[in-house]
Structure formats: C-alpha cells, structure tokens
Amino acid sequence: MKVMGLSQMVLVDPQCQVDAQAIALAAGASEIALNAQIYPTLEAAVADCGLVVGTSARSRTLEWPMLEPRECGEKLISEANQHSVAMVFGRERTGLTNDELQLCHYHVCVPANPEYSSLNLAMAVQLLSYEVRMAYLALQQSSQSSTLQEEYPRHQELERFYAHLEQVIMQTEFISAQQPGQVMNKLRRMFTRARPEAQEINILRGILTSVQKSISRKE
C-alpha cells in the first residue's frame, strides 16, 4: 500500500491483532498497520463511503456492474475529492461473500489467464493499488482536477432507502416476509447499476412515504 501512496487501511473483524510479527512483515510501513481502523462488519466499515468497489475473482449468480482494474483506479481517483471511497478485498481463501459484494457499488475482477488464474490477496492488493496510483499520477500530470457535479448518497443512506423500499413493498403485499424471494436483491442490482444521485434518492424516499401515508388513510 505505502509503495503505491495509499495509507488508510481498514480491517473488518480481523482474526488476530496487529502484533510484532505483523509489524515486522510491514517492512517500513508499520504506521499503516498500527493506524488501521477496525470494524465489526463490512457494512459499518463502508457506512460513510460514497463509492465502494469490491474485488471478485469469479462470476456470481447475480450479475453486478463490473469494472476492469484500470477503470477501477480511474473511478476511485475521480471521486476521491467528492467523498470517501473504498476498495474492498475479501479473505485469502474464500474472498467476499455474495452478501458482502452486494454492499458494493461495483465489482472489479482481474482478467487473469483462465488456465492459471491463481492470484493471492497480496498480489491483488498490489495490482489494484498500482492502478489507483497510475490514475492519480495521470490526474496530477494533466493538472486538471475532476469536477463531478453529482452528489451521490453515502452507503448508510442507500441502506436506509433499501430498508424503506422493502418495508413499503411488504406493506403493499408485493412481497411477503415469509417468502421474499430475490426481489430485493434484483432491485439492489438495478439501483446499483443506475447509481442514483442523493437528490434522486430523496425523491424516491418521498414517493415511498406518500405511499405509506395513502395506506394509513385507507386503514
């Protein structure tokens, strides 16, 4: 991380503490390990992020917006001045779960040789960190800072919207709590693909609230 100019590391429910062995392996970058923030869940870790990209080594049953490594670096750098951004890496052996990947706006997959696609966690971190570094240097060399006009909702705001949406479609009996099926997962995918702005999310929540008020009046 430090080699590529990255300094903020977040650990989610780590299985061990940052000990002397970890400091020794950090090889001159011990401050990153010592200053790592620790959260109990991924949802808590990315709550304040406006852009979250999760790493995935394989295609999933539920398709999600995908980025190439270079696109990932460019997108993270282009939005870093707007809000907090995050790259999420999974466990060494099993990666990220489907539920964890659904907390991400985009997935990124390294297009390795399908006949020998072995890539460990450290390699993946270094490769994607390199792409972030290259995107940052390109921005510096062009002397043009990104001026995105859109203000995107933070992760926790999106989660509140999804909870509100699920509540309303249960109230209207579009889905049932007993057999919700894949409706919410597919709606999440749709909104993730569309990536609505913060103002648009507020409009959608206003519509949901008006539906609830209409239901209450009829009751």
UniProtKB/TrEMBL annotation:
One GO CC term on file: cytosol
A Pfam family that the UniProt record links to this protein: SpoU_methylase
CDD domains: SpoU-like_TrmJ (cd18093)
InterPro entries referenced in this protein's UniProt entry, alphabetically: Alpha/beta_knot_MTases (IPR029028), RNA_MeTrfase_TrmJ/LasT (IPR004384), SpoU_MeTrfase (IPR001537), tRNA_m1G_MTases_N (IPR029026)
Top enzyme class: transferase
UniProt main location, coarse: cytoplasm
Domain tRNA/rRNA methyltransferase SpoU type, first and last residues per copy: 1-130
Enzyme Commission number(s) from the entry: 2.1.1.200
GO biological process, one term: tRNA nucleoside ribose methylation
Protein location: Cytoplasm
Keywords from the UniProt entry: Cytoplasm, Methyltransferase, S-adenosyl-L-methionine, Transferase, tRNA processing
GO molecular function: RNA binding; tRNA (cytidine(32)/uridine(32)-2'-O)-methyltransferase activity
Reactions the enzyme catalyzes: cytidine(32) in tRNA + S-adenosyl-L-methionine = 2'-O-methylcytidine(32) in tRNA + S-adenosyl-L-homocysteine + H(+); uridine(32) in tRNA + S-adenosyl-L-methionine = 2'-O-methyluridine(32) in tRNA + S-adenosyl-L-homocysteine + H(+)
NCBIfam families reported for this sequence: PRK15114.1, rRNA_methyl_1
Quaternary structure (record): Homodimer.
Function description: Catalyzes the formation of 2'O-methylated cytidine (Cm32) or 2'O-methylated uridine (Um32) at position 32 in tRNA.
UniProt family annotation: Belongs to the class IV-like SAM-binding methyltransferase superfamily. RNA methyltransferase TrmH family.
UniProt-recorded name of the protein: tRNA (cytidine/uridine-2'-O-)-methyltransferase TrmJ
Organism of origin: Vibrio cholerae
Gene responsible for this protein: trmJ
